[in-house]
UniProtKB/TrEMBL annotation:
Coiled coil: none annotated. Residues 11-324 form the Enoyl reductase (ER) domain. Pfam families: ADH_N, ADH_zinc_N. One of its GO terms (molecular function) is zinc ion binding. CDD domains: QOR2. It is an enzyme of class 1 (oxidoreductase). Its EC number is 1.6.5.5. It catalyses: 2 a quinone + NADPH + H(+) = 2 a 1,4-benzosemiquinone + NADP(+). InterPro entries: ADH-like_C, ADH-like_N, ER, GroES-like_sf, NAD(P)-bd_dom_sf, QOR-like, Quin_OxRdtase/zeta-crystal_CS. This is NADPH:quinone reductase. GO terms for cellular component: cytosol. The keyword Cell cycle does not apply.
Length: 326
């Protein structure tokens, strides 16, 4: 019997239920997938608490890795027995499961160099790092970036990849332990935002100039400081709202702070084109398979413990990547 985590109303982690489910046979464009590992992402909490509204009841989770068990009509990109990974949004919701039906389109075949747990820990985070560093800004060696949540799953990948590109990485963290982890993964400078003024420290580290790009996954509490950390005509990249959404603001502030650019990208728009997705995935898999980028899986949970996993995530007790092991 297959099992899945579902929820019937929005709310805190306590709304998550571990249940027996019937999977059925794949329809047109679908496959039946047996999961080996499933990714835990902060976006999952947004579905659960209603920030991302969806019809209920619903499954949860958008990222997993496993083995294709059956294919439906009109599926030719994967076959039974293929090792695959996937990530997405509404189209892949329901990943917290032992077995499921999923559209074939989001599936990415895994090279032999990438294990299931590594894939579940890095597909969303790795592809996010890929588009942030390879699509958002024309980086040149010597450019500097400010990276919030530098010890998180995306942060650790971005730091390592940025060093491969010759960038100077300034990371922010909340504890000394996270600071050490960030340094081990490529951060040149680490700022503890719990007792340091981030923007002032960035100016000190850049001789008053500021950074070329800020990657801000925190949102409400860091937005103003992030803008104040940018050099003239720098780029503010809002990639998450862990502390809450950014309040409305007058765009004139961007001109006043140095003709800044601001973007709020979403992974879905950078992997919508199959060719672009394949290109980003190939570069990611190459770096990870060769050991140039290490994927840190620092938390492993059973699906039955989904509520505890969400509590840990929201309390910022996690570092690196977290997965459910099936």
């Amino acid at each position: 019997m297959a099992h899945a985590v579902r929820f019937y109303e929005g709310g805190g982690p306590e709304v998550l239920r571990y249940e027996s489910v019937e999977v059925g046979e794949p329809g047109p464009g679908q496959v039946r997938l047996r999961h080996v590992a499933v990714g835990l992402n902060y976006a999952d909490t947004y579905f659960r608490n209603g920030t991302y509204p969806i019809p209920l009841p619903a499954g949860i989770g958008v990222e997993g890795a496993g083995v294709v068990q059956a294919v439906g009509p009109d599926v030719d990109q994967v076959a039974v027995g293929d090792r695959v990974t996937y990530t997405g949004f509404i189209n892949t919701l329901g990943a917290y499961s032992t077995e499921r039906l999923v559209p074939a389109a989001p599936l990415i075949k895994l090279p032999e160099t990438i294990g299931y747990e590594t894939a579940a820990a890095m597909t969303m985070r790795g592809l996010t790092a890929a588009y942030l560093l390879r699509r958002i800004h024309p980086f040149r060696a010597g450019d500097s970036i400010l990276l919030h949540a530098a010890a998180g799953g995306v942060g650790l990948i971005v730091s390592q990849w940025a060093k491969l590109l010759g960038l100077t990485v300034i990371g922010t963290v909340s504890t000394q332990a996270k600071a050490e982890l960030a340094r081990e993964h490529g951060c040149d400078h680490v700022i503890d935002y719990s007792h340091e003024d981030v923007a002032a420290r960035v100016r000190e580290l850049t001789d008053g100039e500021g950074v070329s790009v800020v990657f801000d996954s925190v949102g409400k509490t860091t937005f103003e400081g992030s803008l104040d950390s940018l050099k003239r005509r720098g780029t503010m990249v809002c990639v998450g709202t862990a502390s809450g959404p950014v309040p409305p603001f007058n765009p004139q502030i961007l001109a006043m702070k140095g003709s800044l650019y601001l973007t709020r990208p979403a992974l879905a728009d950078y992997i919508a084109d199959p060719a672009e997705k394949a290109e980003l995935a190939a570069e990611l898999f190459d770096h990870v398979g060769a050991g140039r980028i290490r994927i840190e899986i620092n938390q492993r949970y059973a699906l039955q413990d989904a509520a505890r996993a969400h509590r840990d995530l929201e309390a910022r007790r996690t570092t690196g990547s977290s997965i459910f092991v099936i």
